[in-house]
Amino acid sequence: MRFRKTVSVVAVVATLLVLPYLFMSFTNPVDQLLCRAFPSVKFPNNSDASKSVPEQRISSAETTINNLTAVLNSTLSKSHPDKALSNVLNKSTVPESASSSFDGLEAMLSSVATADKTVIVTTLNQAWAAKDAMIDTFLESFHKGENTQFLLNHLVIVALDHRSLERCRELHHHCFMLRTEGVDFTSRKRYMTEDFLKMMWRRMSLLRTILEMGYNFVFTDADILWFRNPFDHFANNTDFQISSDKYRGNPYSFYNRPNCGYQYTRSNNRTIAMYRHWCQGGEENPSIDEQSVLKVMLKRNEIATYNVKIRFLETERFSGFCEISKNMSKVVTMHANCCVGMDNKIEDLRQALMDWEGRRPLASINTPGTKIWNVPAACRYSMRSPPRRKRNSPPWRETKGQGSNNQLAGKR
């Protein structure tokens, strides 16, 4: 009799201790992981950098909660199968008809992935696949960088049309064709046009699928030069690392200005849920690009909902034309961001590659204030509006980056 009473008391005490964790596991992940997109999108005000930096709320009891969540899943799957967390995470948001476009992707990823299932991914359409154009400069940088050539063994080039696939196969061993019914991705896409936005969200769907397949990825735009091995500079304890157009000195500040053209994402339940929420935002806001949706998510601190630890990459190493590195001995990548026009991008990227080759041996003696780059040059004024034409004056001549036939993936 005394033994039964003791067991009962222990059971009651254990229940009281566990209930708060069960409540936390049930209310936050189950509801939030449904990936409900925000009802409306408002652009963040980039001028509010003076406000206090929001801290990322990563639960210190995450391990305990995850263990209790597993117990809760077991219970829920029996009584309410549709509410189990594992079912929420495994529930695909890709239409069945669209999933066929990823046939063969997992086999490709498996053949190129590193030992820890990490791949490097870029996308390519016909405009960027032209001979002696963007893709050639991109691949050349791997051959001229420090300890970067072997990374080509882990690079998958995702072709968005048949012509870019043919060109890819001329240059590289790992090419994958991503088919999209009813959309033509062959020509150049002007920034923020309907076709440009479809291309960006199609890319997001691809990256989400890679995470769902269990692979980590480094996504890189093809207008980025690779000078050094970035894996030597990524943080090990971070889920999502992204480059910055404007870096404010704190890698964890949400007031850094992100650029989705370069990101390192680890596959886990947190990042998969975040990406599904992100893609859902695109479905409900098709006239807005993925970078703007991410800025809204950061402003609303929605990243913390999924316990995703995010880090912004410093521009001293992960550089670009928006904010160029002043230290050649540290620079890892160079992005042709803050630039409009493919010709402008190619011209300045080639010059940056020449600067890298010519001054790299002197990198150790670089002093503050020394000019080490001759870029941006063509890109510097590419984002300015064309001059107004005076009345009765002849039409102004189109210059690089201003003509409609020369517009590309804009300032990205």
UniProtKB/TrEMBL annotation:
Species annotation: Physcomitrium patens (Spreading-leaved earth moss)
Protein name (database record): Nucleotide-diphospho-sugar transferase domain-containing protein
Domain Nucleotide-diphospho-sugar transferase: 151-349
Pfam families hit by this protein: Nucleotid_trans (PF03407)
Sequence ranges of Polar residues compositional bias: 401-412
Highest taxon, organism lineage: Eukaryota
Region (Disordered): 383-412
PANTHER family (UniProt xref): EXPRESSED PROTEIN-RELATED, GLYCOSYLTRANSFERASE-RELATED
